[in-house]
Amino acid sequence: MLLTDFNFGEEDDSTTADSAAEAARSRQRVDYVPLMCGSENDFADDVNGIKARADLLFYRKEFPQCLELYNRLLSNKAVKGATVRRDILESKSRALLAMEDFNQASAIADQILATTPDHDDFRIVALALKVDILQHQLKTLENSGESSQENKNDVDHCKRYLMMSVMRVLDMHSSLARYWIILAILYTNILNIRFAMGCLLKAKENSSHIVDFGIDKNIQELKDKYPDYDFDESLSTNNEKPSTESKDEESQEEFTDLGRSVRMKAIEETLAKSSQISNSSCTDINEQNNQQQYITAFEQKWFGSSS
Fold first, then answer.
1. Taking a C-beta distance cutoff of 8 angstroms, is the pair 163, 295 a contact?
2. CA nearest 43: which of 30, 56, 55, 52?
3. Residue in 103, 102, 106, 108 with CA at minimum distance from that of residue 87
4. Whole-number Å distance between alpha carbons of 14 and 30
5. Per-residue model confidence (pLDDT) at position 210
6. Half-sphere CA count of 229, side-chain side, radius 13 A
7. 63 exposed, middle or buried (CB, 10 Å; 0-12, 13-18, 19+)?
8. Could you tell me the CA-to-CA distances from 264 to 164, 282, 306 in Å, in that order?
9. Cα dihedral 12, 17, 18, 20 in deg (nearest 10)
10. Could you point out which of 101, 198, 224, 246 has its C-alpha 20 to 30 Å from the C-alpha of 84?
11. Residues 6+ away with beta carbon under 8 Å from 111
12. CA–CA distance from 239 to each of 111, 233, 305 (Å)?
């Protein structure tokens, strides 16, 4: 069917093909309504639109403005899904981190971790956020130039929290090479060369051919810096360590605990509860003891005895 088969005139049946086509185009231009992009005044309860604008402000590094929108979303009753709220909370925490408000950013990370489902795939998101915050906080403390005892205590406290948080990530997913490298750097800083090399070897074992983390270079630099240290003998001792559990017990433990040690999980739960208690000298001592127990358990699991 051709356009000439239609009568576009009101009463004139002798309309030519050209004039009919032109009339049709004219009518289309009159009826056309251009689509308009929404402004901030449109759709006040449009959650997706507000989140998109907030994220755009974040990437533009306009952090106070994006924080205002994130807070607006969190106070919006239309935002009911727990997954969506956790996503907004993480965005808010990262905006606070960019503004170097480490305390507020860390508090939100703890809030996400406390309310997330008890599954590794959910918990690792909050722990990864925690690691990022502690890394930036540690770098800021070390570059502050202060030599007071208070600053030294803050640096040690931040290092211990960072080490434990990285271990918690690796205890869930040991194939993440980047976190083994972070842990190797922390061990190098405290001159635990054996564990530092063990972390680098674990990173190499789980490295990707797509992303180059410079692991071979780091291993060689560590060997060059400590030429008298026998890394091969130290690490082979752990490889020959016999297992004290039967295969049946190991498989049962992995089934009931998603592959994590029951003992380490119990300590982790204690740490999670202690973080919700108000700070006091007694609480701080207990928390430090729990942290050290977790760190020791992790080291024994992956590296064997430190002797």
1. yes
2. 52
3. 108
4. 24
5. 79
6. 18
7. middle
8. 11, 22, 18
9. 50
10. 101
11. 89
12. 39, 10, 11
Are 211 and 175 contacting, i.e. CB atoms less than 8 angstroms apart? no
pTM of the model: 0.70
- CA separation for the pair 284, 277 (Å, rounded): 10
pLDDT of residue 39: 57
Q: Are 75 and 64 in contact (CB under 8 A)?
A: no
Q: Report pLDDT for 55.
A: 93
Tell the residue number behind the tokens 């082979």, with chain if given: 236
Structure tokens at 194: 């054996």
Distance, C-alpha 59 to centroid of its chain: 17
- d(CA 281, CA 2) in angstroms, rounded, equals 89
Give pLDDT, residue 179: 95
User: Helix 193-205 to helix 281-303 angle, to the nearest 10 degrees?
Assistant: 60
Residues 142 and 155 sit within 8 Å (Cβ to Cβ): yes
H-helix segments, 16-101: 17-31, 47-59, 63-74, 82-98
Q: What is the pLDDT of residue 258?
A: 44
Q: What is the residue type of 88?
A: I
The backbone torsions φ and ψ at residue 14, rounded to the nearest 5 degrees and listed phi first, read -100, 25
- Show the tokens assigned to 46: 């449009």
Q: What is the mean pLDDT of each run of 10 residues along the chain (307 residues)?
A: 51 60 69 58 70 92 95 89 91 96 95 88 91 95 85 90 93 92 92 90 86 86 86 56 44 45 54 47 65 87 71
Please provide the size of the chain in residues: 307
pLDDT of residue 281: 45
> Cα separation of 100 and 122, whole Å?
25
